[in-house]
Design a protein that fits this description.
Elements (H helix, E strand, L loop, with lengths): L4 H8 L1 H12 L3 H9 L2 H14 L5 E5 L5 H9 L4 E6 L2 H13 L6 E5 L12 E7 L8 H11 E12 L5 H22 L3 H13 L4 H10 L2 E8 L4 E7 L1
Helix pairs in contact: 1-2, 4-5, 8-9
């Protein structure tokens, strides 16, 4: 019997597995994002930065920044002086750096290789911390959330955007069919890596979304917690204050 991608990730060490997986698909990652989301991910990021703008953050940390899509949107929409993007995949960061320089945003955005669960930054440093579609890839979710809480200033804002499950049974069934059947097929054709796009639906199904995730954030110490569902519930933006 073939092992699923979640089993392989556990055996290899999820952190190592995730880094190697994203390194392998880095050159096709942005194209796959646009195709698989039908471009809706662009709108999601604009909604996220609009929410962050309410608090006027000056120094922002974008965790699991990948190819820097959210960091770039933040640089465009916020009046932040400094945005630091951190990711475990050096190849994803290389793609992101090219985009940042092409847009002439390297005076605002700084991309760094780093472990989201062991951040190098001092306590109470950032006005806001953001993560888009990255927390489900953490090897130790609680540790990663604790690190976000640690580096945030008092009254700093946390924003996490992640896939979730629709409440409608029909929409959920269609969603799971798309994720489990269509996504791996498109992933194999375009990126040449079917395994990475098998991992995606498995990681989404295992993630503690909705109230379960809000409970985790509350346990870590965040307050004023909110969850905003987007696109019939296939994506949720979670926010909280330190």
């Amino acid at each position: 019997m073939n092992k699923n991608e979640a089993d392989l990730a556990r055996e290899q060490g999820k952190k190592i597995y995730v880094r190697e997986m994203f390194n392998s698909i880095s050159q096709k990652y942005d194209l796959m994002d646009r195709i698989l989301s039908l471009g809706i991910d662009i709108r999601w990021r604009k909604i996220a930065t609009k929410i962050l703008k309410e608090n006027n953050p000056n120094i922002v940390l974008d965790i699991a920044t990948g190819t820097a899509d959210l960091a770039i949107q933040e640089a465009k929409d916020l009046n932040a002086e400094r945005i630091i993007g951190v990711d475990i995949s050096e190849k994803m960061l290389e793609v992101g750096q090219v985009k940042v320089e092409k847009l002439k945003l390297d005076n605002v955005i700084e991309l760094q290789l780093g472990d989201s669960e062991n951040l190098i930054f001092e306590d109470n440093f950032f006005d806001a911390v953001s993560v888009s579609f990255g927390v489900r890839n953490f090897e130790n979710l609680n540790q990663g959330l604790k690190e976000m809480h640690r580096v945030l200033k008092k009254d700093g804002k946390l924003l996490i955007m992640e896939f979730s499950m629709p409440s409608s049974k029909l929409i959920k069934a269609l969603y799971l069919f798309y994720f489990n059947r269509v996504v791996p097929l498109i992933g194999r054709i375009i990126s040449g890596n079917v395994y990475a796009y098998r991992y995606l639906p498995e990681s989404v199904e295992q993630f503690p979304y909705g109230e379960a995730f809000l409970s985790l954030l509350k346990e870590i110490g965040f307050s004023k917690l909110e969850a905003k569902t987007l696109s019939l519930g296939i994506c949720t933006i979670y926010t909280g204050i330190k």
